[in-house]
Design a protein that fits this description.
By secondary structure, the protein is mainly beta. Helices cover 8% and strands 43% of the residues. The strands form two sheets. Strands 3, 4, 6, 7, 9 and 11 form a six-stranded antiparallel beta sheet that branches. The protein is globular.
């Protein structure tokens, strides 16, 4: 079992902060009028190879949203099954251009391999929110988020 704790940026900083993210956010706007520089902070908090499923790992990412924070539309690796649970506050989300749903602390949702996460934002402009995203993904996968093309 490997537990990762660091306050320094790591490769997963590209999870949310890729150079093109600001441009994508400005273009998409995710329907909320959000500022292009208000992105959640994503931190890899757990990583472990599955001993009974060769080539697969669990990777957990803590996503911390400040008031009004949002990430642009994105996809995850094609091998990724994702289970997300809201730890604090409320998150607005839409998958595959489906209805926008607000999940509150204690509620959860899943994303299937190949899904397009088209809305991902803090439901509040005044309170913080936290989400734990647990990935079952190919062990060698390093990029956990890819912004959608325009």
């Amino acid at each position: 079992m490997k537990r990762i704790q660091t306050s320094e940026p790591n490769k997963l900083s590209r999870f949310i902060y890729a150079p093109i993210v600001c441009a994508v956010v400005a273009i998409l706007g995710v329907g909320s009028g959000m500022a292009a520089d208000k992105h959640p902070k994503a931190t890899l908090v757990y990583e472990h190879a599955l001993p009974n499923v060769p080539g697969k790992s669990i990777k957990a990412v803590l996503v911390e949203y400040g008031p009004g924070d949002a990430s642009p539309g994105h996809t995850h690796p094609k091998s990724a099954f994702i289970y997300a649970t809201v730890l604090e506050g409320a998150i607005r989300t839409s998958v595959n251009n489906g209805p926008v749903v607000t999940y509150r602390a204690g509620q959860n949702f899943s994303e299937m391999p190949g899904d397009r996460h088209t809305v991902d934002e803090n439901a509040s402009k005044t309170e913080a929110a936290k989400l734990l995203a647990v990935f079952v993904v190919d062990t060698d996968e390093k990029e956990l988020l890819t912004p959608l093309e325009k």
